[in-house]
Amino acid sequence: MRQIGIVAEDLLAERPGLTWVSLTGHGRSDPCGQWIAFGDDAGIAAGLSAILHQCTGRWMICGDAVADPMTGLHCALAGWASWLAGGGQLVDISLAAVVRHCVTATAPQGIHYSDRQRAWEHRLSGRPTRPGTAESACGYALREGLSSPP
């Protein structure tokens, strides 16, 4: 937007109640402020593939551009919250930061990925899982034909 003369900070100074929601791949600040991201690579940068690797032993992409809808929802909520608070804010939200937040916010502190995976499986399936016997969600999806191995 800056390249065509639209500067969020200038508009906010001119219109005190305005809210500007900035959705980027990796944030507005340097060193990654100019980096491009899409849902898949932002998810990888945030650690989703590492979690899948720890759970399954295979490097995979989680979902199809999963960061895109997650970030869109966060932007909508942040914009609404800013409006309710009277506006006047530049809200900086990035694809990678949203996924990183969601990954870290869903598990208690100190829980290992294998334990986290079991907790997620339990929440998703509604059935209890026991340590050492829980099948991975990825293994279930592959066996049921919901996905194919990379």
What does this molecule look like?
The protein is mainly alpha-helical and 150 residues long. It is built from 7 helices and 2 strands, in the order H-E-H-H-H-E-H-H-H. Strands 1-2 form a two-stranded parallel ribbon. Helix 2 (39-46) crosses helix 5 (95-105) and helix 4 (67-84) crosses helix 5 (95-105). The longest helix has 18 residues, at 67-84. It is elongated.
Count all strands and give the number: 2
Mean pLDDT: 75
Low-confidence segments, given as residue ranges, are 126-150
Shape field? elongated
Count of helical segments? Answer: 7
| Radius of gyration computed on alpha carbons | 19 Å
List the helices and strands and how they pair.
Elements (H helix, E strand, L loop, with lengths): L7 H7 L4 E6 L14 H8 L1 H9 L10 H18 L4 E6 H11 L7 H13 L11 H7 L7
Parallel strand pairs: 1-2
Helix pairs in contact: 2-5, 4-5
